[in-house]
Amino acid sequence: MTLDEWVAAVSAELGVTAPDTRAVLDFTRDVAHRVDRPAAPITALLVGLGCSTGDDVPAVIERLRPLLPAEEG
Known about the structure:
Blueprint lengths: L2 H12 L6 H14 L4 H11 L7 H8 L9
């Protein structure tokens, strides 16, 4: 099963709109690297809870992105 197939199956089972997978993965990668790895799946859950539909995911991510610590380097 591919990632896209999994997301489609889970979304259908839950009766929700499939999210922008790339946006979720990119944001949780940033969270894992700038905050802590265990924060990534918890943040993904919180993003989901903050959305009323899958279409809201990018807007919720952009609302949370300023909370990330600055990149080191």
